Amino acid sequence: MSEPAVEFIGVSKSFVGRDGRRQVILDRVDFSIPPGQTTVIAGGSGQGKSVTLKLILRLLDADAGQILVGGVDITGIRGGRLEEVRTKFGVLFQGAALFDSMTVFDNVALPLRERTDKTEEQIRQQVLATLQTLDLSGHEEKFPAQLSGGMQKRVGLARALQLDPEIMLFDEPTTGLDPVMTREIYELFARTQRKLGYTAIIVSHDIPAVFSLADQVIILHDGKMDAFASPDELQWSTKPHIKDFVRTTMGELYQSQLVE
Amino acid sequence: MTDIAGKNALASLGGTGMYILADLGKMSLFLLQALRGLFRRPFRFRECVKQVHFIGAGSVLVIFFTALSTGMVLGLQGYYSLNKFGAEGMLGSAVSLTLIMELGPVLTALMVAGRAGSAMCAEIGIMRISDQIDALECMAVDPFRFFISPKFVAAIISVPLLTALFDVIGIAGGYISGVLLMGVNPGSFIEGMQQSVTNHDINLGIIKSFVFAVLVVWICTGRGYLVREIRGAGFGAESVSRVTTQAVVMASISVLIFDYLLTAIIL
């Protein structure tokens, strides 16, 4: 079997809350994310989905354990080596995190200008081509605030894809979008992934919609995690907290399918 | 009961002490990273120019009016005080020394903190809470080199120049009110100024303006950068507004404290 794209070995993370109490988010968690596939990390709010994503990106430091990205332990590295690991990632943030004082074009061009030696003309061509595939032609000179939520997400995706990431991370990619837009965004993910072959890690609570994409599902619950090889396996799980989770998040949709 | 209350009070005092120490540590680390960012390549020259324009050129009008009114008031006040002793010939010396050594550097720094410092703090705070800084880090772009260190460069260039402008306009203001309005002899105004202002006084003013520039830009950008880690700041837009206010107050108070310290040490 090929090397996992990301692997957590005994990772713990806790925070001291504003009331001074220590809150355990992850408690010696192990999991591995196979390359080239789509893994969905789900769980109720406050169960550490976003923390897991930030740990993978080393925006947070783990209290204990190892986090391997492409076989390299990232928990101890800094400076240039950390930057090298980070260039493997493309990230679509929850609120798209576009630079609001820059135009759409400049946002998408930024990683190319900063991280490559391409000429301005090459950058221009690449950015315009990406914007075209994501249905954003004609919006290059607009500022993020002038775009709809769905368009901002697409610009965020365009920016994240510029450096050909091996691993794409999506943090709640459909928050604030209507159902039609949500489906469009997920179709777009599936299309770009088929084309570019990256490993996708999607953090979401939008369970029924996102499961059509998932190869593997990870559920975070009370600091622990359960991994399932497919959405179906999750659905048939007999663990009480998983059954609970399936019932509350997927509700009628899955139950009706079960009855059939 | 009182025993428990006492212990709680001690614990909260200790907690506050630890928080302040940790906060100071984070601010020091921030300063080190910003200074390191100055030397990382590629240097963002255009961003520096943009910031010099914002901090420097954008503040000229504010500095002009502040300096003019300060100088004119100094001229009037000085005239009335000195007139009592028949020493209005000392007016040029009094106005220029006050401006060059004290009011020029201090008021320029306070104005820059209020105008540009607050804007820098709010900008960086919003970038922090909307994940824009995380986004830069994820693209392996150092946010310090990218947009924080250029603000340091711009402040270190702009504030001393603005201070010099303040001094010149202020002295002109003193001349207007003292000589043109109150009738002090122009020759004795200029002569008194030339005789009393030494290189040492000018150096003191320049050193102060450099130190204040670093203080203002450090505190204002640092508080914005750390907006999520500041106790009692709250969340979201409210946290940015609170931290911006706090940054301007902290920067202003630090300028005043360092003004006294530098004067005491160098004078």
TrEMBL record, chain A:
It comes from the Bacteria. InterPro entries: AAA+_ATPase (IPR003593), ABC_transporter-like_ATP-bd (IPR003439), ABC_transporter-like_CS (IPR017871), P-loop_NTPase (IPR027417). PROSITE patterns: ABC_TRANSPORTER_1 (PS00211), ABC_TRANSPORTER_2 (PS50893). Keywords: ATP-binding, Nucleotide-binding, Transport. Residues 6-247 form the ABC transporter domain. GO terms for molecular function: ATP binding; ATP hydrolysis activity. SUPFAM superfamilies: P-loop containing nucleoside triphosphate hydrolases. Pfam families: ABC_tran (PF00005). PANTHER family: INTERMEMBRANE PHOSPHOLIPID TRANSPORT SYSTEM ATP-BINDING PROTEIN MLAF (PTHR43023:SF6), PROTEIN TRIGALACTOSYLDIACYLGLYCEROL 3, CHLOROPLASTIC (PTHR43023). This is Phospholipid/cholesterol/gamma-HCH transport system ATP-binding protein.
Automatic annotation (TrEMBL), chain B:
It is found in: Membrane. The chain crosses the membrane at residues 18-39, 51-74, 94-113, 152-182, 202-226, 247-266. The keyword Transport applies. Its main location: membrane. It comes from the Bacteria. It is a multi-pass membrane protein. This is Phospholipid/cholesterol/gamma-HCH transport system permease protein.
